[in-house]
Amino acid sequence: MARRKQGPRKVEYRPGMRTRVLYGSAALPLLCILLCMLFASACPEQLVWSSAAKAVLLTLPRWLVLLWVPWGLWAAWNRSPGGLPVAAVAVVASGWPTPADDEGLGLQFIVANVQAYSDEPEVLEAAIAGMGPDIVIAIEQRVRKLKGMDRVAHNYDRDLPRPSHGTAVFCRKGLLCSAEVTGEIGPEDCSMPLTLVQVEAQLCVVGIHAPPPAPICGNGLQPYVEHVAHHVDDGRVSREFGPCAVGDPVLVAGDLNQVPGSRAWRTLVDTGLEDQLAWHGIWAASWPNGGGWPKMPFFRLDQVLAGPMDVGPVDLVDLPGADHRALRFRVSSAG
Question: Per-residue pLDDT tens for 299-310?
Answer without folding.
Answer: 999 999 999 999
